[in-house]
């Protein structure tokens, strides 16, 4: 069974701080995706990482895919209140018919 | 263009009643997915439709759950004899094809009293 474990589950920080969210699995994934979800809305795709060791940057967000393609991380530099939300990692199941999601990290950034 | 839409946005029902949830995917998207999001369980896959192929129903939690997709477009998720543990947000997503980016609707929040 493919599982994705995310940590931490909750994160409450002050504006300007840095943070890292982790997504780990014992299974190899062909790619991993990171989503952000706000209350009352569906998840929105932030990035897809495909190659082992890959690093992608999206403004203050840096995404990394592990060399063995079993884990990924999301690092936010100088967090802002607008970064508040639920961050989810996801990967396709072996059949490619669905996404398997981690349970998410709820981030709260206060000013 | 229009995104994925779902209706109703909120549904409150009594235990034992049947409910129908509707999803309108993005026009031209051949793949459609239903997920359930509940506290403590995260987002769980329910069912996947691709064109005219037989759906992947492997995520449906019990035979009280069923879904159909008419004309390759609109989909309806039906829950019969609802139970309190069915309370959750039901999310629909669509994509151009399998393994492409999935676009999610805002969800239907179901509360079973």
Describe the protein's architecture and organization.
The complex is a heterodimer of chains A (111) and B (113). Chain A has one domain: Immunoglobulin-like (Sandwich). Helix content of chain A is 0%, strand content 52%. In chain A, strand 6 and strand 7 form a beta hairpin. The radius of gyration of chain A is 13 Å and the shape is globular. Chain A starts with a strand and ends with a strand. Chain B has a single domain, classed as Immunoglobulins (Immunoglobulin-like), CATH 2.60.40. In chain B, 0% of the residues lie in helices and 49% in strands. Chain B is built from no helices and 10 strands. In chain B, the strands form 2 sheets. In chain B, strands 2, 4, 5, 8, 9 and 10 form a 6-stranded mixed sheet that branches. A 4-stranded antiparallel sheet of chain B has the order 1-3-7-6, with no helix packed on it. In chain B, strand 6 and strand 7 form a beta hairpin. Chain B is globular and about 35 Å long. The model of chain B has no long low-confidence stretch (mean pLDDT 94). Classes of the chains: A mainly beta (111), B mainly beta (113). At the A-B interface, strand 5, strand 9 and strand 10 of A face strand 5 and strand 9 of B.
